[in-house]
Amino acid sequence: MGFKHAPKVPRVLPALLLCAAAVSAQDFMDGRRNQLLFDESGPLRFSVQRQGASSGIELDVVNVIAPSKEKTRQQGESDVVRRFYDGRRRLVREEHWHMARRSDKCVFSDEIVYIYDGDAELPSSSLQRYFADNKQVQRLYTGQGRLLQECTSFTDSSGAPLNDRALRVDWAYDSENRVTERTEVTGIPALLTKSEVYKYDGAGGRPDYSYYENGKIRIRIVYSDRSSYVQTTYFDDGYSVEASYAHGIKQQERYLLHGREIRQGFYEKAQ
């Protein structure tokens, strides 16, 4: 059962990107000249351009160009990421393009727009649009840049919402910025609700884990150390199976009905 923190949003202009392109931060910041970088075989791989004010905001555009990864695409095609930064060097928009030799084969696949509260360094929300799939993803972030809510919606070719495909995911965190709950709701109105709950006060050094479907407990894992735990799986009609593991190896299973043991099994220890 894997446990991962929710991903963090991009920060201001990434230093790694500048280093990889051999472009100094000062050259980018002062805007004295555009930056171009070619690989050894000739194709352009990176560029920085100073773009004039747009809606009163000074924008810098960073283009990252890579050969297409899809085997079905032809030689000479490439994938381009265009990143737009405001005067505070905050990422405000990111565009993903597929470029081809012929202009009618070029595709603007999706874009992400980031919204900031005042002078905040990290965005408070973002909107991503996938044009070919009629898909839109709205995200809200915590002040530390972690996902708070993600809402995915779809429309048909006429623009009508496909409510049965809608998906909303919510995250909750503790004071140490650790995920304590993740809830996923499918459909409008809700067709299926899945919840994962993490508790960090256990003795095992790993968070105890519970999984719910439509409010019913389905899985619970309680750790005694990092690789020893008891996993209980709950079924309908009062049945459950309790499996005990020591150092990652299953030792015992108990089968229960309404909490009463009806049989059990033991496993030989690994040699």
Topology:
Layout: H1 15-20, H2 25-30, E1 35-38, E2 44-54, E3 57-67, E4 78-85, E5 91-99, E6 107-115, E7 125-130, E8 135-141, E9 147-154, E10 167-173, E11 179-186, E12 192-199, E13 208-213, E14 216-225, E15 228-234, E16 239-246, E17 249-257, E18 260-266
Antiparallel strand pairs: 1-2, 2-3, 3-4, 4-5, 5-6, 6-7, 7-8, 8-9, 9-10, 10-11, 11-12, 12-13, 13-14, 14-15, 15-16, 16-17, 17-18
Give Rg in angstroms: 25 Å
Give the terminus-to-terminus CA distance: 25 Å
- Helix fraction by DSSP (H/I, runs of at least 4): under 10%
Cα shape = elongated
Helix/strand structural class: mainly beta
Beta-strand share of residues: over 45%
Mean pLDDT: 80
Structure characterization notes:
- This protein has 271 residues and is mainly β.
- 4% of the residues lie in helices and 53% in strands.
- It is built from two helices and 18 strands.
- It has helices at residues 15-20, 25-30; strands spanning 35-38, 44-54, 57-67, 78-85, 91-99, 107-115, 125-130, 135-141, 147-154, 167-173, 179-186, 192-199, 208-213, 216-225, 228-234, 239-246, 249-257, 260-266.
- It has an 18-stranded antiparallel β-sheet, with no helix packed on it.
- The longest helix is centred in the N-terminal third of the chain and has 6 residues, at 15-20.
- Mean pLDDT is 80; it is low at 1-5, 10-33 and 53-58.
